[in-house]
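Fig. S4 source data, part A: sequence.
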Amino acid sequence: MAVTVTKDTKIGDLLMIDRRVAVLLMQAGMHCVGCPSSAGETLEEASMVHGMDAEKLVAAINDFLSKEQ
């Protein structure tokens, strides 16, 4: 079953889907991935804090996940 991530996906849930996504987040500039408070943030919230485009980040994550299935 393919998993689709949205900008409403919480970072903690995303890391439970596939921990390797942490590398993508860190490469995008989200170095706080391991911070306990980041687990409750959505991708959209974290993107806003870091000045990123949430749609592009979600697309990159979904692309990664689709290739790993």
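Fig. S4 source data, part B ends here. The radius of gyration is 11 Å.
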